[in-house]
Structure formats: C-alpha cells, structure tokens
Specification:
Blueprint: E1 11-15, H1 43-55, E2 60-64, H2 74-82, E3 89-94, H3 99-108, E4 113-117, H4 123-130, H5 135-147, E5 152-156, H6 167-176, E6 180-184, H7 200-210, E7 215-217, E8 227-230, E9 238-241, E10 254-257, E11 262-264, E12 273-274, H8 275-281, H9 285-301, H10 321-324
Parallel strand pairs: 1-2, 1-10, 2-3, 3-4, 4-5, 5-6, 6-9
Antiparallel strand pairs: 7-8, 8-9, 10-11, 11-12
The structure holds S-adenosylmethionine and iron/sulfur cluster.
Length: about 325
C-alpha cells in the first residue's frame, strides 16, 4: 500500500496483550488498570486481521504488548501468522524474562528476530526501573536465545536520573556477543511524559568520546528507523532510534494494531479504527476479509505526514504503551 505521501506501508506492530510481568516505571507502573480479557483480540481475530493486512501489502509483523510471552499460545500464534500467504517476516519484542523458556519453540515457529528490552545490567538499577528482580533471568534468556539460533537485538531506553550512564556497559554487549544494541529515545507517550530522557545526539557524542573510531554503518539491519554505527572489534552494531530529534516520518512504513483491535495510523495521535467491531458485524470469513481490507485502505489513506512529539500540546494519544504496543 502507498499512502498519500508516497510511503510504502508494509509493516504492522501488533500488541497481543496489555498484561506484563514487569512494571517499568515509564510504561506500566504498579497499579495500572488493565483492560478485561474479553476486550482483547482473540487468536482467530488477530489471524483474520493479518490475512486481510497481507492482502493489502503488509508483509512484516512485529508482535509486541504488554509482554507478548505472557499471553497463552503466543508461540503458536506466531507460527500461524508466519504461514499466512505473503507474510515474509514475523518478529517479536520482549522484556526477555520468559524468553529462555520459549527460545527453542520460537525458533522452531520461524520467528525471524527477537528484540530484548534491557535498560540496565545493574541489578539494583534494573529493579528500580522495572519493579522486579529479574535481571538474571533476562541475561540467561539472552544466552538461550542465541543458542537457539534466534537473531537478537537489545533495545534500551535511557533516563537521565537513573540509568543515564548505563550505555557504557550496555554497548559492551555488542562487543561480547553477536547482538546489535540500540538506544531508543523516551517518547512523551503515557507515563513516559514524566521522565527526563537522554537524547541520542548527546549520547552519540559521549560514545564518540570513549570510542573515537566509531563510524556510520549503512547496512540495512531491519524494518525500523534506527541509524547504525560500528565500533572496530565489536560483533554487533550500535543503533539509535531518535523519535524526537531525528524525525524519521518521511520513511515511516508502519501501522499499529492495539490489543483491543484498533488500527492506528500513527503512534502520536489518538485516531484509531475499530477492526474488532467490523469483524463482529459481518457474518462470514469472506465478508470479514473484505470489510477489514477496506478499513486498512482508509487508514493508510489517512496516515498523517508526521508525528508532533516536539509539540506536546498537539499529541492526542492518551492510551498507554502497553495498549498501543511500543
Ligand atoms: N514488553 C515488551 C518489551 O518490553 O519489549 C514489549 C512491549 S514494550 C511497550 C516495547 C518497547 O517500548 C520497550 O522497548 C520499551 O522500552 C518501549 N517503551 C515503552 N514506553 C516507552 C516510551 N514512553 N518511550 C520510548 N519507548 C518506550
Ligand atoms: Fe512491560 Fe515492556 Fe512496558 Fe516494561 S516496557 S512494563 S516490559 S510492556
């Protein structure tokens, strides 16, 4: 699908649950209200939506949440989504706590890549950020996932007052292991508004101070907007996803499906279109497919030119990341 700005839209992020086994302070702090299970899309509904999406040219999916691996049947769902004609790539974003348990099954299901979110390698800081003492399990999962042959990227969000200097140890992971390490600028969505980010421009300067030999890496690493750099002798690359300071909207290729079945053209705005209702209104699979395909066409036609995170008053999205799928 092409939108009105000539962008090819071929990638969808799906939040399959708003539940999570961590309580990251900028995403889902203690006490967050959850949607009832009955409001969350079923496996069959996700499959139907993805079949229609594939017919409209979506060929890459990212399974996210909440924590996708706490949803029962996540691996089987991935296996089924991979089998949809035209679906070229299904990847997963996880906090890594349960990844060790499912690593082999995920590889067997054909998962094309796994992003592990890991903001600190220090046990106490990890606990302060996530509210749980699970760092040891995440690190074990990383080993298990690599042993299972999964392609791994590490994603970290830095906050000035807590893990702002953790980049030093996090980038070492790319030296020791064949993993890319990427820094995501905190976005002013949900609880993220309350914390002071470390901006990537400043971070790159600090890394350059420590590693003067760092240089741009122009190889394609995935579907996203990350800019990559290489440090000699490192096995993986260092990536920067700078939603605030380097607008990448010109090359945006994505839609988002919330856990409740609303299709979003852009992360920053509250506009969304109810696919679940469309599925429930129609009677048979053929009609379902047609009505969902039509909504995909409408949403792509209405995709805004750019986000407005630099103008906070214009951000209209009020949902939290766990519902939207970060
Ligand atoms: N639980 C999984 C995980 O942690 O990877 C998947 C869902 S989580 C919402 C996906 C990603 O969104 C994580 O890497 C998390 O750090 C990031 N995230 C959450 N809130 C954010 C915010 N306000 N700004 C930037 N990234 C955010
Ligand atoms: Fe859970 Fe991921 Fe949000 Fe942390 S970032 S609370 S792991 S959904």
């Amino acid at each position: 699908m092409k939108d009105q700005y000539g962008r090819t839209i071929d990638y969808m992020r799906i939040s399959i649950t708003d539940r999570c086994n961590l309580r990251c302070r900028y995403c889902m702090p203690e006490g967050v209200e959850l949607v009832s299970m009955g409001e969350v899309l079923t496996d069959e509904e996700i499959q139907q939506i993805c079949m229609a999406a594939a017919q409209e040219g979506i060929c890459k999916l990212k399974i996210t949440g909440g924590e996708p691996l706490v949803r029962k049947g996540c691996v089987e769902l991935i296996r089924r989504l991979k089998q949809i004609p035209g679906m070229e790539q299904v990847t997963l974003t996880t906090n890594g706590v349960l990844l060790g348990k499912y690593a082999e099954a995920l590889a067997d299901a054909g998962t094309d890549g796994v992003n592990i979110s890991l903001d600190s390698l220090d046990r106490e800081q990890y606990y302060l950020i996530t509210g749980r003492d699970e760092l040891h399990r995440v690190l074990k999962s990383l080993e298990d996932a690599l042993a299972a042959g999964l392609r791994i990227k590490i994603n970290a969000v830095l906050q000035k007052d807590i893990n702002g200097t953790e980049w030093k140890s996090l980038i070492e992971l790319a030296k020791e292991k064949p993993v890319d390490v990427r820094f995501i600028e905190m976005m002013p969505i949900g609880y993220g508004k309350q914390f002071e980010p470390v901006f990537n421009e400043e971070l790159l300067q600090m890394i350059q101070g420590e590693y003067p030999q760092i240089e741009r890496d122009v190889r394609i690493h995935g579907n996203g907007p990350a800019q990559y750099y290489r440090i000699p002798d490192f096995q993986g690359s260092i990536g920067f996803i700078s939603a605030i300071h380097e607008k990448f909207c010109e090359s945006c290729n994505r839609l988002r499906l919330t856990s409740q079945g609303r299709l979003k053209p852009c992360l920053c705005y509250g506009d969304s279109y109810d696919l679940r209702k469309a599925l429930q209104n129609t009677k048979n699979d053929k009609e379902n497919l047609e009505s969902i395909r039509k909504i995909f066409q409408e949403v792509v036609a209405k995709k805004p030119k750019q986000h407005c995170f630099e103008q906070l008053n214009d951000v209209t999205e009020e949902k939290h990341m766990i519902q939207i799928g970060g």
